[in-house]
Design goal:
Layout: H1 5-8, E1 17-19, H2 30-38, E2 48-52, H3 61-70, H4 72-75, E3 79-81, E4 88-90, E5 98-104, E6 131-137, E7 140-144, H5 145-151, H6 163-166, H7 169-179, H8 191-204, E8 207-209, E9 216-218, E10 221-229, E11 232-235, E12 246-250, E13 255-258
Antiparallel strand pairs: 1-2, 2-13, 3-4, 5-10, 6-7, 8-9, 10-11, 10-12, 12-13
Helix pairs in contact: 7-8
Length: 259
């Protein structure tokens, strides 16, 4: 999606942003940081939260994304990989000219969603992950069936989750944790992947009780984004399973976290 000159002008509302001091206790906990480091994600993902000035509607996702990445406060507080991709550094001044914004679902309310993983040839009752012969899939050295299920339609277990379910935020968090970084120390059991995915999901999303039905519902909005400065794609950086950028909005408090 390319932002035209008309959308840059004052004939539409402009979203503005301020840095908040919101703390994510789970994401920054010693226990989770230890897991992320083991999976080689500790210095590869960051979480920063901003307040925004106006109510958000789904159809404004592209304009919201454009304004977000062109906001001076955002630019001076976002972190990106350094040129050697070894550490996170402040992004700095840029003029984003092109963005893509895709609303992704976050409707899962129970970890029962993952019960189907316990199936012959994939995950045993005790949580042990079935191994497989080593093979390279999309640059990943795959040695177990969970990785195959996440990466290739040739997996016998690919159809456990349909395309819509694979786009759910909870599934994506699980996938990112399992795939990890280049020197990921893979777990032999599924348990900790699920526990961390659940904890982060619970911390990231916002729930609200319906005043009429009294049912608890998820009200967060999640936007999967890409942003270009000319020929350079800054967010997520390149086309890879593990390069991602999500804007997670709390529409009640009007805050957005970039993950």
């Amino acid at each position: 999606y390319y932002i035209t000159n008309n959308l840059r002008m004052a004939d539409r509302k402009t979203f503005k942003f301020e840095l908040t001091n919101k703390k994510y206790l789970t994401f920054n906990s010693k226990e989770v940081k230890t897991d992320l480091t083991r999976w080689d994600l500790g210095n590869r993902i960051s979480l920063t939260t901003f307040a925004y000035n106006d109510f958000f509607k789904d159809y404004e996702a592209k304009e919201f994304t454009y304004d977000f990445f062109n906001d001076a406060t955002v630019q001076h507080n976002l972190q990106v990989f350094s040129s050697n991709r070894q550490e996170l550094v402040t992004w700095g001044n840029h003029e984003i000219k092109e963005v893509q914004a895709e609303i992704i679902p976050c409707s899962i309310t129970s970890m029962d969603f993952f019960d189907r993983l316990v199936t012959p040839g994939l995950v045993r009752e005790g949580g042990a992950i079935h191994k497989c012969l080593d093979e390279d899939i999309d640059g990943f050295l795959v040695s177990d069936e969970i990785h195959r299920m996440l990466l290739t339609e040739e997996s016998d277990h690919w159809e456990l989750y349909n395309e819509d379910e694979r786009q759910e935020l909870l599934f994506l968090l699980f996938k990112h944790l399992v795939l990890g970084g280049p020197v990921n120390q893979y777990d032999d059991k599924i348990d900790r992947y699920l526990e961390v995915a659940k904890a982060l999901y619970k911390e990231f999303i916002t729930v609200q009780k319906d005043s009429e039905t009294k049912q608890i519902g998820l009200i967060s909005k999640v936007i999967k984004v890409s942003a270009w400065d000319g020929d350079i794609c800054w967010f997520p950086g390149d086309d890879h399973h593990q390069t991602f950028c999500y804007l997670i909005l709390n529409p009640v408090n009007r805050i957005v976290s970039v993950f």
